[in-house]
Predict the 3D structure of the following.
Amino acid sequence: MSSATAIAHPNIALIKYWGNRDQRLRLPVNGSISFNLGSLSTRTRVTFDAARGEDAFILNGRPVHGEGLARVAALLDIVRDMAGLSQRAEVHSENDFPTGAGIASSAAAFAALALASSAAAGLDLSEAERSRLARLGSGSASRSVPGGFVEWQAGDSDETSYAFSIAPPDHWALTDCIAVVSSVHKPTGSTQGHVLADTSPLQAARVADAPRRLDLCRRAVLARDFEALAAVSEQDSDIMHAVMMTSAPPLFYWQPATLRVMQSVRAWRGGGLPVCYTIDAGPNVHVICPQDAALRVSERLKALEGVERVLTATVGGPARLVVDR
Amino acid sequence: MSSATAIAHPNIALIKYWGNRDQRLRLPVNGSISFNLGSLSTRTRVTFDAARGEDAFILNGRPVHGEGLARVAALLDIVRDMAGLSQRAEVHSENDFPTGAGIASSAAAFAALALASSAAAGLDLSEAERSRLARLGSGSASRSVPGGFVEWQAGDSDETSYAFSIAPPDHWALTDCIAVVSSVHKPTGSTQGHVLADTSPLQAARVADAPRRLDLCRRAVLARDFEALAAVSEQDSDIMHAVMMTSAPPLFYWQPATLRVMQSVRAWRGGGLPVCYTIDAGPNVHVICPQDAALRVSERLKALEGVERVLTATVGGPARLVVDR
């Protein structure tokens, strides 16, 4: 038996990933930029065991079967191939953030799984190799491998599509105030959504314009220019949702309260508060602000109709191995 | 003194007009398709009078000055040029639909003005010439000149950019149930909005894809295929708003209640009710359905949070001269 445990954080994309040029390898059609959410994490222990007949995946204490287990087992197969290993594994994973609150957990999950499983299998992978491995489980997981502010270069092959830090966590004290909004519908998952991206008449224009947005965002992060970051990240989020809403079938992730938060954030910024929004494939609104404004922003968000709760996260570090509890 | 009175209806675009290739001539970047809203109308009387020193515009009993008067006078100048006339005019215009309810009135206003002013000036214009004249006052007014279901061909010059009927009013008994939604902000007017269209990274893709959407919509109208009409008109509306939301500065016309109506309409259609939405440059939702479903649709709309009232309109006829009251 060989075992390893890793912790990884979810990340919030400032320039979004939507659509693959290769669905199987999860090679994205455009690069993306994110930062890790340090206050939220997934802890995953992988134990390879010669006595096991099949892989098992236990999430927050409950065995997962079907599609969830299949995605974990597929990543383990890749690791086994790399390590020349045949043993099945038991994977225990726990999120310290509320499930069902609509925080996308697959990025943290596959970043932690890539690190723990490769370590348990005796592989000594570089950060880029771990990022590539995580990408094969969930595209955005590639960005949860390096620390701080991260860029995932699209690349054009398995070898060239990985993420790296563009600035460490302490480069810029930003906070993500996540406005959790009630949702009556279970949204379409990202994996299915990426397949629909090309059905929108707007996706090609979104992709063609991505280098401009990536450049603006990278510069804004490096210069700690909040106004510039706000403009480009809101536009990028709106562009992704424009593609989603105009795909066939259309994907609408915004709820009335989502729109209320967006409007409020723009109004607050107009009134001088440094704050902007970005929205993933769900109804929650990630409201980004400098850390010293986070308390005010959280209080204002909680007062809005339709906001059920607010989670906050500062900029987090890389996925890392930890000593087992 | 010579006088003429005309009545015209607003129209609701199923394929939208957004962006000009020539701002002054209001030559649109893409064609559009609409139907006239027969139950709503504007009545306009134009009186040329040698004794008048300047043009006057009285809207719903109140004199209009500034920008509103200037746009009317500019159209009158064109008519005077065409007719070799120098007399100033008094223009009386009345809407039979509530002002301030967010129903765009400029289409009906300039269609009625084009007809009444050209007739009062002794011009005998063809329908295409009246449509071109109305277009110079307000782009979408070109579509309120012909009757029923109307296509405005973009054209590439003043001579070739006009609208014509593709089917008469009784071709298809549709109803527009206009869900009037409360708005705290006065939205940016279309005339200013058209100028911003090209600042969106998505506008070129919207325009490039327009022939496909026009073709789908034209076929759906001619075949009275409601499902096809619903799919293309919702997508076209969402695409226009995608461009608006991603322009610089962004234009957000949707309110939380707008989104609630959109979601409800999609859910009702999923449940078998023939109904779809389309949204102009404002927060109101035009909910289109076959006439025999209009009562049910109106009742459901009125029950939604944030819907202040519902106006209904059936498919209307062309702009026409009437005997003065």
Observations:
- The domain at 2-170 of chain B is CATH 3.30.230.10 (Ribosomal Protein S5; domain 2).
- DSSP finds nine helices and 16 strands in chain B.
- Chain B has two domains: 2-170, 173-314.
- The interface with chain A takes residues 201-202, 204-206, 208-209, 212, 231, 234-235, 238-239, 242-243, 245-246, 248, 250, 252, 254-260, 262-263, 266, 306 of chain B (CB under 8 Å).
